[in-house]
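User: Please predict the structure of the protein below. I'd like the answer in structure-token form so I can feed it into my own downstream comparison script.

Assistant: Understood. Taking the following sequence of 169 residues as input:
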Amino acid sequence: MAVTRTLQTSSELPDLRDLLLRLGPDDRALRFGNAVSDAAIEAHCRRLAQAGDAARVIGAYEGGELIGAAEIWFEGGSPPPGCEVGIEVDEAWRGHGVGGELLGRAVLVAGNRRARRLRLSCHAENRRMQRLARRFARDLRFDADGAEADVLLSRPSSRSIRAEATMDA
């Protein structure tokens, strides 16, 4: 199984950029909500680099290559009332549990930052993300734009803080 840990944004963000650039047009549209160019991906990664504590990126590495990532974007406030997560997995690694591992880690990290809920959104045709959301959330809501689910998060505990520290060790 891949090694999953928090990315150091300053030095490892190029790994995320490379992963996103490997996504085909359909996968980019599913991840970002519409067609995005290489330049838009570069701009997205620059925003992540400048986000500071407002964002975290958890990566799954196999053989030194980033094969999947979960981007957590926190809402304003202290503690943040919530956050949104975006997940991307390299096509060759889909169906191997990488997305589930990333989402599980995102839930842990967001809860440890005292966020109360984590929102998952996806296109109506993104069945993989919908299956993943159902594993973590009670209900999946559909509208004309797609599907959405909220994962209620636990408060941080000594166990959850140790689990995150172990993940990043």
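That's the full token string. The longest helix spans residues 98-112.
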